Amino acid sequence: MTSPTPSAATPLEVTDETVAKSTTSTGPKGSESRSPGRLAWKRFKRDKTGVISAYVVIFFFVIAIAAPLIAKLYGKNPYTTYASQDPSLLDAFSYPAGPNGGMSSQFWFGIEPQLGRDVFTFLLYGIRTSLGIALAATILTVVVGVVVGITAGYLGGKTDYIVSRVIDILLSFPSTLFFIAFMPVVYGIFVAPDDNIPTWLRALALITVLTAFGWATIARLLRGQVLGLREREFVEAAKVTGASPMRIVFKELLPNLWTPIIIQGTLLLPTLVTAEAGLSFLGVGIIDPTPDWGVMIARGSTFYSQDLTFMLFPGVSMVLFVVAFNLLGDSVRDALDPKSKR
Amino acid sequence: MSNTNPLLDVSGLTKHFPIKGGFPIRRTVGAVQAVDGLDFQVSAGESLGLVGESGCGKSTTGRLITRLMEPTAGTIKYQGQDITHAGRKQLAPIRSEIQMIFQDPYASLNPRQTVGKIIAGPMEINDINPAGGREKRVRELLEIVGLNPEHFNRFPHEFSGGQRQRIGVARALALEPKLIVADEPVSALDVSIQAQVVNLLQKVQQELGIAFVFIAHDLAIVRHFSQRVAVMYLGKIMEIADREDLYDNPRHPYTRALLSAVPEATVDEEPRERIRLVGDVPSPINPPSGCRFRTRCWKATEKCASEAPPLVQVEGNKPGHLTACHYPETPETIPAPRLSKDPEAAA
Ligand SMILES: Nc1ncnc2c1ncn2[C@@H]1O[C@H](COP(=O)(O)OP(=O)(O)OP(=O)(O)O)[C@@H](O)[C@H]1O
Ligand code: SF4
Ligand SMILES: [Mg+2]
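Above: the input entities. Below: the structure tokens describing the complete assembly.
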């Protein structure tokens, strides 16, 4: 059984072989496979915008993770009101005494007006809080969306019908309004009206609400993808050999869904960063004195006409992060799904 | 034909797809009668060709046999065992014996799995551990289907259509099946590649003694491949016979029309006339009464509209040659006047 095809077909078989050979020669090595993931990675590496954005995004995550370490080396923390130790830092109107918001070799990013906290560490910890919450909410949103979407799409029938109606209803809500309306409700569930709300509960409530209103988009998208995939013949081929539904979902469907999942995740994170900051800005998320991007912008907005410097740091850093992450998201999409380009 | 103990025994096989409609409460408002009462057998090692125009229910039949779909009525017996409504667990021991080759080589291989994984998948699922390991078996299978065994860790997108279909064949062979349902395995391929894949399948069929249900939309390919041929039209079998009987002595007008469209087929020794069927295939939602072919048949009478012709051995047929027609063709039958002749096809 070594000669695969009858001799009559041999010339054409040679054509087949040359096709195989030419693919080999373009690859780095004969046995090395060009997996779809590897091809996407190669495409991504060629995309300058994407690579630069990735570095910027990584930088933000590194400083967020390393915030305590940086603060220690720098020798300050975001909670101490340095002005009460050294009143000369603020002037008579409680604005930084030095030029440029009190920027100095001591206080790199200056002094916060009124309370006199250190802007640099406050921003570091603020980024840490905001990114932490947004990242947790993104992961949870994607997980919930993926599980619900795949379940609805794969099972179909009544499950699909009910899930789809729930998604329709959720997507028809004006979400920003509901965030603002729902946050106090969530707090109310756990804490008596007059009690102090602990910061961890605020973070948890933010993650819950952001997830509750966010999963529907991803679920709908994945449901559609699964509906298309489950009719594909390779799924039938798996069924014919006796594959269990679990195996079909995890081994046949899921590997084909990583692209939309990763794309959605990267596009979701910056929107959740702004949403989190927005809610904190409006006073229903994280509140002062916990450092947070949104809190900082909220404080900055109360005195930006007198001291623009303070507003500048959280504002510019957030714009930089969101823009970089969105560009990264676009590049990731182009790399994973080159057909969608332009 | 010794059909006393066939490998596959299908009787009265029916699949109606419900059509849902109505608002606000969705209910069944009709049915697509995709397959309607099929009877046929396949013996071990035999190849049955299933031929018919697009939409006549060939794929549905294939998917019913492989139990990818639940039949509406009828029975499917495999080696005497009724598997018509068997669940996944009950089917498990049989799954490895009935395999399928699909029409579209681009959709039938998971783009995210390596060829090795695709071919080893069936072994993994059925917990088969061949001597020397699964990878060795994968290489063997790749060699059998004429691919480079070293390519087992490549991805489907690195192969051409014909090569992909060979991978599909290797996957079907991985479990050493007794029956393979091949649903138009070459119709998506270049004409130049078609012959190669058919030759491969023929080799597999003969050397490994695997029975085939070979689905095709014209009689040309089946002629070289199948010992027995069934002609389908709108969900019903019009004629079923051993190859020589069907090609040399077609008794059903539809078979005759199909044969006249086959380039190298010679119905008679006389100059061939192409029978061009006029009109469209009627909708399977509302098929014609009586004989389903009557709207396009040049011999139709009132009897054809009122009475469905049974699939029987009509006079003049050899045993095993069954025809569903009230007025079967004879070698002398001259194409009727209503029949249009196609001058281009004759040229
Ligand atoms: N899942 C389904 N739901 C509803 N109708 C269906 C379904 N699958 C097939 N049909 C209908 O059943 C009929 C037979 O379809 P089938 O795919 O079996 O035809 P076929 O002979 O394989 O055609 P082709 O040569 O185009 O592949 C068609 O009218 C088709 O529209
Ligand atoms: S039964 Fe009548 S309509 Fe049907 S094929 Fe025979 S002659 Fe034609
Ligand atoms: Mg088909």
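Note for the figure: The pocket of adenosine-5'-triphosphate (ligand 1) is lined by residues B 17, 32, 34, 52, 54-60, 217, 284 (CB under 6 Å).
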